[in-house]
Amino acid sequence: MSALGGGSSGGEGINPTASLIALVIVLVAVAVVFVAYPAALVPLIGVIIGGVLISFGVHFVPVGGAPAAMGQAPGIATGVAMLAAGGGLAGLFGGAWAAEFGLALSLAAGAIGGALLMAITCLMVNVVYVYAMGIPAASGKVDKDPITGDTFPAYKSQGTEGHGLPFISYVGGVIGGFFGGLGGTLIYYELLQVYEEALPSFLGVTEGMSILAVSLAGIFAVGMFLVAAVLTAYNITGTIEGPHDPKFKRWPRAVIGSSAASAVCGLFAILLVVI
């Protein structure tokens, strides 16, 4: 069963050895930061949580790739990483703009920005599918939409995996954008706090440090976002319709991998200004 009641299986289990290694990597990164610069311990944990949110959110996004462009699979006709970057980075930019108003408003702006971009994207995708290509929305993974109850078999073309963007996929895209924007903004905000505090003493000057802190936090946040998104793309392997797709069950594995990757990236991003 999928997250919302899909009928077929397709998820894969978690490798205990790999999970243990990931946990060790996270703990080592946390320990190093605690010894080198204790004030950055909480920001590093925030960075790890941000990476986890991004990885989890990407699994909601309906990715159709090339088959979707030809009307042979549901979803948006592009890749996982590109879709995640589009939605998540839009949220990240919104969150960065609101960073001066505090953590809560920054996270809210980031999450809403990411969700809004995905909502508009999914809407326009269906406009193109329905009114330009003449393709009805039909899932290839479930016979009935878990939210609306609409049935798909009568509308699905033979020889395809479905087509268009069913409502459950639309909702999944918005949720994915929400988590992506939230995670990306959290990474940016936590790194910004570290850089604003550490850069003046590290470089021995105070003038222009705010701009440098914003620039570095933005660069590393975008980089970490792409790391988490690409790792998740490898976990999904191909297309995914959204939370009703059996591949959605793979999210724990991606979350574990992204937590280790985010811990390592966050460690380097912090050590850059404290050593």
Provide a quick synopsis of the model.
By secondary structure, the chain is mainly α. The protein is 66% helix and 0% strand.
What does this 3D model show about the protein?
- The chain contains eight helices and no strands.
- It has 275 residues and is mainly alpha-helical.
- α5 packs antiparallel against α6 (167-203) and α7 (209-236) runs antiparallel to α8 (251-274).
- The chain is elongated, with a radius of gyration of 20 Å.
The secondary structure category is: mainly alpha
User: What order do the SSEs take from the amino end to the carboxyl end, as H and E?
Assistant: HHHHHHHH
Q: Overall 3D geometry?
A: elongated
Number of strands: 0
Q: What are the segments in which pLDDT stays under 50 over at least 5 consecutive residues?
A: 1-11
- Taking the alpha carbons of the first and last residues, their distance comes to 49 Å
**Count of helices?**
8
Strand residue content: under 5%
Mean pLDDT: 87
Largest sheet: none
Spatial extent as radius of gyration: 20 Å
State the helical fraction: 55-70%
Features:
0% strand; mainly alpha; 275 residues
Give me the secondary-structure topology.
Blueprint: H1 16-36, H2 41-58, H3 65-69, H4 80-97, H5 103-132, H6 167-203, H7 209-236, H8 251-274
Helix pairs in contact: 1-2, 1-8, 2-6, 2-7, 2-8, 4-5, 4-6, 4-7, 5-6, 6-7, 6-8, 7-8
